[in-house]
Specification:
heterodimer; A: 176 residues; alpha+beta; Ubiquitin-like (UB roll); DNA polymerase, domain 1; 5 strands; B: alpha+beta; Uridine Diphospho-n-acetylenolpyruvylglucosamine Reductase, domain 3; four-stranded antiparallel sheet; globular
Chain lengths: 176, 328
């Protein structure tokens, strides 16, 4: 039958949820409309703005373009799931101390994306501006951060503080 | 979005058999382009057969020294692979020049090859478009066509192919492996894509229910001396106005062999055969590179708004070949 609901399981920020979804439901709509998890925002709904970014099995993706049925059993981390034991994630702290936001609508997506991006850099993944694509490790210069974060738009134009916020969180993660 | 049935087969053969019985169904992989098109009612499949977990997500060595890229390898994994980066740098660079980090993490190799044009009229269901709705006409022909084709277009369609990855694979002579209802076959990538002619609704030569399972790269040879260069309207996260994928082998100052493909200029990745022919045996010097680029662009037929692509393509080709012959 067309559109018949499909039962799926999603583990979001450490909690397991069972739900029946219309196959048209995106991961973003399942999180927001069905589970009441509002960290991932709906901006463009077409994969162009990045404010819906979540970690899907540890990898950052646009949740607006992923169908929930196609990710049955997935482990999802949203901005709400980054803090642990009442302590904010260092990326969240760094955004606050650098005043890296104005209206805040893009912020959860920026922060989740930045956390995923640091893992990619740690794994040695190159970007388009990486000069030596054969190199073992990636040095996160401002140019690298801007390129790797180009999938997250900020219409207030808080980039001038977002880039240093991410740079500082990256440097402190390196020292830890 | 129109309702559809979601289907997940046990294996590739099952997925192919299911789709073969569903004339209006489609395969789903990463979904980064298809889900977007479905939200806009540009594509309205009634069944989606999910193949993301069915095809290989590995990059394997081939006995001849080449590599086999599984169709489910994500764009991010492909670009980060050490062998790809050292032996086929043009491919890693092309993938990294496209989309965003989040999209590359979801998008697959097979899906990237089959993404649809970003022609604005194709996306706008209120306007005629022969690719979306055959027989309704081409809005871009007399409309805003700054992003459109300068090679191989027809009166029916002037759209361009949007992939960066496919341009690099075209320069590398990749072979696309597919499995369909009547068995498996291997298609040189230059024969996978087609020009619009009278059937712009068909982007490729694949039949219904034929599934891309892998892409084979030939043994490296001089592809380790290769690069991708892309011109776009902003520094990152934009489709190509024009792009160039090139590999060149220079010995004693002479071009021994060369591969060049252009993106953003045609309905398919455009292999610059005339430029390649004009270069073999000539000095690896700016004059030869420019003459070869111009030989290729003699065949260009720009539209009202995209004549800028002709000098842009010539300059990009010349500069890329200079880079590759160590003259910058």
């Amino acid at each position: 039958m067309w559109g018949a609901a499909v039962e799926i399981t999603l583990r979001v920020d450490g909690r397991e949820h069972r739900l029946a979804v219309d196959p048209r439901t995106t991961l973003l709509d399942a999180l927001r409309e069905r589970l009441g998890i509002y960290g991932p925002k709906k901006g463009c709904d077409h994969g162009q703005c990045g404010t819906c970014t979540v970690l899907l099995d540890g990898i950052r993706v646009n949740s607006c373009l992923a169908l929930a049925v196609a990710h049955d059993g997935a482990e999802i981390t949203t901005a709400e799931g980054l803090a642990s034991g009442g302590e904010l994630h260092p990326m969240q702290t760094s955004f606050i101390s650098h005043d890296a936001l104005q209206c805040g609508y893009c912020t959860p997506g920026q922060i989740v994306s930045a956390v995923g991006m640091l893992e990619e850099a740690k794994a040695g993944w190159p970007s388009e501006v990486t000069r030596d694509t054969g190199a073992e490790d990636v040095s996160l210069t401002d140019e690298e951060i801007r390129e790797r974060m180009s999938g997250n738009l900020c219409r207030c134009g808080a980039y001038a503080n977002i880039v240093p916020a991410i740079r500082e969180a990256a440097e402190s993660a390196r020292l830890r | 979005m129109k309702p559809f049935r979601y289907d997940r087969a046990a294996d590739i053969a099952g997925a192919v058999a299911t789709l073969a019985g569903e004339p209006d169904g489609m395969f789903l992989a990463g979904g980064t382009n298809l889900v977007d098109l479905m939200k806009l009612d540009v594509m309205t499949p009634d069944v989606l057969v999910d193949v993301r977990c069915l095809t290989s997500a590995e990059i394997e060595d081939l006995p001849d020294g080449g590599l086999r890229i599984g169709a489910a390898v994500t764009n991010s994994e492909l670009a980060a692979d050490r062998k790809i980066r050292s032996s086929y740098p043009v491919l890693s660079q092309a993938v990294l020049a496209g989309a965003s980090g989040q999209l590359r993490n979801l998008a697959t190799t097979g899906g990237n090859l089959l993404q649809r044009t970003r022609c604005v009229y194709f996306y706008d269901t209120t306007t005629p478009c022969n690719k979306r709705e055959p027989g309704t006409g081409c809005s871009a022909l007399e409309g805003c066509n700054k992003d459109h084709a300068i090679f191989g277009a027809s009166r029916q369609c002037v759209a361009t192919h949007p992939s960066d990855m496919a341009v690099a694979m075209t320069a590398l002579d990749a072979v696309v492996r597919v499995q369909g209802p009547s068995g498996a076959r291997a298609i040189p990538i230059t024969e996978l894509y087609r020009l619009p002619n009278q059937e712009p609704e068909r982007d490729t030569t694949l039949d219904h229910a034929e599934l891309i399972t892998a892409v084979d790269l030939p043994p490296p040879g001089f592809s380790s001396n290769s690069r991708y260069r892309k011109a776009r309207e902003r520094a990152s996260y934009a489709f190509a106005l024009v792009s160039v994928a090139a590999a060149v082998q220079v010995r004693d100052g002479v071009v021994r062999d060369v591969r060049i493909a252009l993106g953003g200029v045609a309905h398919k990745p455009w292999r610059a055969v005339k430029a390649e022919e004009a270069l073999r045996g000539w000095p690896a010097a700016e004059e030869s590179f420019r003459a070869a680029a111009e030989a290729e662009l003699e065949g260009a037929a720009p539209l009202r708004d995209n004549a800028y692509k002709v000098p842009l393509a010539a300059n990009l080709m010349t500069r890329t070949l200079l880079d590759l012959s160590g003259q910058r």
